[in-house]
Sequence to fold (228 residues):
Amino acid sequence: DIQLTQSPSFLSASVGDRVTITCRASQVITNYLAWYQQKPGKAPKLLIYYASTLQSGVPSRFSGSRSGTEFTLTISSLQPEDFATYYCQQLNTDPFTFGPGTKVDIK
Amino acid sequence: EVQLLESGGGLVQPGGSLRLSCAASGFTFTTYAMSWVRQAPGRGLEWVSAISGSGDRTEYAGSVKGRFTISRDNSKNTLYLQMNSLRAEDTAVYYCAKGGRTIFGEALDYWGQGTLGTVSS
Fold:
């Protein structure tokens, strides 16, 4: 199975901060990586697909990039509604594994 | 508006069975792959299973292969997950999610609100 590791696992930040979350895949997955946001008690929400394509309706402060098997989610200016847990998922090879998550908390 | 509504969760004893349903609306159901994703209490997301739009291809996580069966009834716009030989570690909120036109490569763009399945004696 393809393993995804996320770093950091926890991040404390302030409103207005630039935030970067990294997801590393254990094998090549081309661009078949998605990013989701989940708030407590809610279903996940798709933010980014194909590594860097912004889902319709998602604010442009969210962006994604890829370098080999390393993927990055960037929030350019953190807003109060962005405090949540973020997950990456690879869709290249089944099982379509998720990363362990990165919780973004208020500093 | 895309809507996914799960049902069928509940309390079951170890070794028992549950059948989850997900009623879909707001899109052409037969065109899209569908998945089940679960989340144990206080834990991260775990992909469970996926099925193609026509239902002719299915994929499973190793942890559920041989015990769970995904299926769909395109005439009823409904996705199912039959869960047998349940274990305590299957306790989770189960989400259904809409995929793309193929199982592979396509992210999950709409999710239901989830249904809780609890396995306990």
User: Anything to note?
Assistant: The mean pLDDT of chain A is 97. The radius of gyration of chain A is 13 Å. Chain A touches chain B through 25 residues (CB under 8 Å). DSSP finds no helices and ten strands in chain A.
